[in-house]
Structures are given as C-alpha cells and as structure tokens.
Amino acid sequence: MPGFEWAGPEAGTRHQLGGRPTAIQPVEYPTCPQCREKMTFYGQLDSINDEFCIADVGLVYVCVCFECSEATALIDSF
Question: What are 38's strand-pairing partners?
C-alpha cells in the first residue's frame, strides 16, 4: 500500500495490542454502559495511509469491559 504523502515517519506504525495507549492527547478510559466500571485499554489502530486516514493521522483506541463483554472505540487525533 502507498504510504503518507505528508505525515511524519511514525504515522502508520503505531498499531498495538495491550499495554498503554500511545496517546496523542491524554486518554480518559470510558465506563462500561452495563456495570459502570472503568473499561480496560485493549489495543489501538493507526491510520494506514492517505486513503485510510483517521481524523488527521489519528488513532482508534479499543476499550473492553471483561466482566460484561462490552467494547467501545475512541478516536484521537492531532
């Protein structure tokens, strides 16, 4: 796939499972809509290239509640 024409070299390389998010801005973990407990960061997806760019070369964070099997996604961008 073609890369980015104008983004920095780290763009497209920040995919991750587990650990802590590579936050562009501070991340507030969402609460589970079922049990109201804080959800757990599960992973993140990076923008891929100019065609598949998330909110100005942003990231999608996926958070999960392991008690209720609920999941939610957050978008972070520059």
Answer: 31
* Residue 68 and residue 39 in contact, taking contact as beta carbons nearer than 8 Å: no
pLDDT at 40 over 90: yes
Does the model's pTM come out above 0.85? no
DSSP label of 7:
S
Whether residue 20 lies inside any domain: the answer is yes
How far apart (Å, rounded) are the C-alpha atoms in residues 28 and 22? 13
Question: Domain of 48?
Answer: 16-76
On whether the CB atoms of residues 32 and 39 are closer than 8 A, the answer is yes
Q: b/e map of 64-73 (b: 16 or more CB within 10 Å)?
A: bbeeeebebe
